[in-house]
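Notebook entry, structure prediction.
Reason for the run: the old model in the group folder had no record of what sequence produced it. Starting over properly, with the input documented here first.
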Amino acid sequence: MPAFNRGGGGSQIFNSAALVTPQGEWVGRYDKVHLVPFGEYCRFRSCLLLLEGYQRGRRVSARTSHAGLDAGAQRLGTFICYESIFPDEVRQGPLQGAQFW
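New structure, fully documented this time:
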């Protein structure tokens, strides 16, 4: 899901997963760490004029932590789509205390 952080310096967009209780209470959010090149970010956007129009409004931000989500007494590890092809990153969940991944 898209998630937004708004602050004094503007807003950031994240590709996120949310943990919601059966009662509908929002208890946690994981923001994607490894973004898809040219889809969620373009490192050399200013050099690639053709992508400038495509990327406008799609500047997704990345987090730096693979910290899991707390589900009561359990910690859930999370990764989103493209992140699954990077085993060293997927391994970070259990290394940071996730019991379920």
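Summary: The chain has one domain: 2-95.
The old model has been moved to the deprecated folder.
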